[in-house]
Amino acid sequence: MVELEVTVELNTPLLLGSRKLGTVTESLKFLPGAMLRGALGRLLARECGHSPENHADCEFATIFRADAQPRFGPCYPAVSSFSFPFPATAQQCKYYPGFRDQDEEAHGIHDALIPLLAYEEVSKSQRVEVYRPHCPECEAQLEPVSGFYELFGDTYWQPKPRLTRLSRTAINRRRRVAAEELLYTLEMLSEQMSGPPDSQRRTPSVPTRLRGFIWAVDDSQAERLQALLTRVTHLGGSTSRGLGRVTITAEPRWETSPADPPNAAQQLAEAANNLDFERVDAPEGTLTHRVAQFNAELLKALEHYPDYQPPAGRLFFTVDCLSDVIWLNRGLPTALLPEQFAGAQRVRAFSLPQKVSGFSGATGLMRTMQLAIGRGSVFVYCLNNATPEAVQAMLGTLQKAEREGVGRDKERGYGWVQICSPFHLEVKPK
Ligand SMILES: [Zn+2]
Ligand SMILES: [Zn+2]
Question: Ligand 1 centroid vs 41 CA: distance in angstroms?
Answer without folding.
Answer: 10
